Amino acid sequence: RIWFGTRGSQVQILPPRPFMKINKVVVIGSGTMGTGIAAHLCNANIPVTLLDLKTEISEKARDKIFKSKPPLLFDKSKVKNIEIGNINDHFDTVKKADWIVEAVVERIDIKQALYKKIFKIRKKESIVSSNTSTIPLKVLSQNLSKEDKKDFCITHFFNPVRYMDLLEIVKNEFTDKEKINFLKIFCESLLGKGVILCNDTPGFLGNRVGVYAMQVAMTEALKMKLSIEEADSIFARPMGIPKTGVFGLYDLIGIDLMSDVLKSFIKELPKTDEFHVVAQEIPLINKLITTGYTGRKGKGGFYRINKSSGKKILEALNLETGQYSPAKKINIQSDKVDLKELINRDDQYGKYAWSVLSKIIKYASSLVPEITKEFNDIDEALRLGFNWSKGPFEMLEEIGVKNFFNKIDDFKNNRFLENLSKNKQENFCKTRQKYTNIETFGKVKKVAVKIDKNDSAKIFRFKDFNIVEFITKANALDYNSMDALKKATDKPLIIINEGMQFSAGVNLNYLMDFVKQKDFKSIEKFLKYFQETCKHLKYCENPVISAPSGLTLGGGFEVLVQSDYVIAHTNIVLGLVETLVGLIPCGGGCKEMLWRWTQTEEAKKDSDFTPQKVFDIIGYGKTITSPMEAMSLKFLLTKDKSVMNRNELLPISRNLISKIKNEYEPPKSPIFNLSGSQVRDKMFQTLENLFREKKILEHGMEVGKKLAFVLSGGNTSIDKKLSEDDLYALEFEAFIQLLQMEKTQARINHTLKTGKPLVN
Ligand code: NAI
After folding, report:
1. pLDDT at residue 15 greater than cutoff 70
2. Which residues contact 517 (CB under 8 A, 6 or more apart)?
3. DSSP state of 22
C-alpha cells in the first residue's frame, strides 16, 4: 500500500481489486432478453454461457440468435462461441463466472430461488445482476446477506440488446460503489452501451417516463377521438419520436406485456402519483388481449395485416367501433420537426400535441429530484431507450421557457417548474450526455462554433477541424447537403450525425419533384454537383473522415466510400441499393468499388474478375449489417475502424485527425483497364439466366444492362486507359437514361409509398 498526501488529506492508492475483470459471463434465462444479452457479449468477444431450464431451450435460443433479423450478432460465424446448457447439469459454470446475469421470467419467487443457488457457489468477487424491468432491487435482494447485497444490482438492458443503447444500472445503499462504477465502465467501453446509474424507483428512468408518455399519448387520443393513424402521425417524427408512434409501439412491444407493465406500476407507485391517471384499464385493450390480438407477435393489434384478398393490406383499428379498415395515410402538411409550430397549430393536431407534451414535461419534471437529481439523465434515458431525438427537458427548452409558462395551466407542487418559472432561464439544459465522461458529438455541438447552416446540413468548427451534420429526414441528400460538404473542407472534416442514420441516400422525393416537372436540367445540375463534391472530398488537401452509424445507403455510402477514413459504429447498414429503385450509383459508387476490387489478388490473375464481382454486389443491391461483414465486400477497408460505443465516434475520429493531419496527402487518381464488351457479354449472360429463372423481370434486365455497360467501362477494351472522369461520365449517362424511364419512375414511386422495392 502506498500512501501520499494531497492538500493535507491522505489518499490511499489501492492495488486493483481482484474482481475488476470480467473474463467470463453466465446468462440465466434464454428468452428474448437473455439471448440478446448473450449475443451482445459474444459480439464483444467475451466468453459467455447461456443457461435455461432445459438445454433444448437454450439451444433453440442460440438458433434464434443465428437467424435473428435484424441480426443480433456482428458476425454470425461466431454463434458457437456462445456455450449453452441447463441450470441443473451446468450450474457449475456459475462458479467460474465473473458476472452472472439473471434474465428469467418476471416472477419474484423464481428469481429469488435462483439467487439462493447462485450466491451459494459463485466466486466471492463476482457481480450478480437481474434484468428485471419492474421488480424493485430491495425486493429482489431481500433474502441476501449484507455481504451479498454489495455485489448485487439490476442491469436493465433494452430490447433488442444489440441495437438499443440504453443500459440502466440500478443500485441502492447496499451496493458496492466501486464495483458498480467498474461495471458501468465495462458496459460502456466493451458493450458500447449508454450506461445510466439509477436509484431503486419503479420503472427506473426510461420506463417511468417513457411508459407514462405512451399512456398519455394513448389516453389523450381516446379522449380527443383521434384515430390511431392520426395519433401515430403526431406522436412521432413531428415530435422527434420514432415513426412507430404510440399504437404502433404498443403492437411492437406486445399489448399483453404492456398490460403487465402497467399493473406493476399501479402496484408499486403511491396512489398520489399522476401515473395512475393514465394507467387505468381500457376495455378495448382487455378485449384485444383476450381475443389474441396482442400485437405483431399475435393476430395483430391496433394494426393488422389482412391477407384475405390475396394481397397484404395494412389495416387499422377504429377505437370507437372496434372494427378494422385499411390504414389511412395522414398528411399533417408539415415535414419539419418544429415543436413550437406544432403545439401552436390551430387544429386538433396542435391541441393533441400540446396536451401530450405538456403532460409529459410536467410529469418528468415532477420526478426531480425524487428519481434522479440529474434531469439530463431523464432526457438521455428517453433518447437512448426510446430513440427520441430530445428528452422532455430539451423539448421544454425548444418550446421556449417563456412560451411554455404562457401556455401551461398549473404546475402546483412541481418544484422544478416552480423554480424555472421564477428564474425563466431559457437555456437551462446546459449539456448533453452527462452520464458519460466521453466527449460526445452531443457535448461538442453545444460548444462548437456554428459556421453555416442550410435546410439539409449544419457545419460546425471545433478546435482545428470542421464537422458536417446532415439534418433532413433519414438524412437524405440533396443539393444543400453537397453544398455543406463542399464548403467544409477548408479544415480537416468529420462527417457525423446525432440522428439515427448517417444517410439513407439521395432524396428520392427531391428527384421525383424534378421528374414530375420534366426538369431534367436541374437533375443533371444536381448530379454533376454530387459527383464534383464526392471528388472534392477525396482530393481536397485536408483529410475527410466519415463516422457513420445506422443506415448508410446509396448516395450516403458514396460519401463514405470517398472519404479518406471511416470510423464506423458497429450498428451500420451499408450498401449501394440504387438498382432496387431502377437506378445505378452515380456519385462514384461504381467507380470506387471497381477500384477497390482491382487491388485484389484475383483481379491480378483475371482482368474480368473485378467488374463481375462489383456487378454482383451492386446488381443485387447487397447490404451488410456490421463492419465485419463490410470488410468482405470491401465496403470498408483495413485502414477503417469500427467502434462499439456510438458516443466514441467523434473522439476517435478526432484522434485520428490529430495523428494524420500533418503528413496527410490526398490519394493519387486511379487508372482503370476494363475489357468493355468482352466482360459485358458475360454479364449479359448472367442477366439472361436470371431472366429465364424469373428472378428478374423486363426492367430488371434493363437496369442490369445499364449497370453492365458502366462496370465494363463502356466502349473500351483492356488495352485502353480510363480515368476516374470517364467512369463518372458513364455513371451519369446511365443514371439519367434510367431515370427517364417510366418503369424506373414506377419503382421509385412504389418505394416512396410503401418503403419496399417494386419488381417490374
Ligand atoms: P422470456 O419469457 O422471453 O424468457 C424467460 C426465460 O426464462 C424462458 O426461456 C424460461 O424458460 C426461462 N426460465 C424460467 N425460469 C427459469 C429458471 N428458474 N431458470 C432458468 N431459466 C428459467 O422473458 P424476457 O422477455 O426475456 O424477460 C426476461 C427478464 O427481462 C424479465 O425479468 C423481464 O422483466 C426483463 N425485461 C424484458 C424486456 C423485454 O422487452 N422482453 C425488456 C427489459 C427487461
Report:
1. no
2. none
3. -
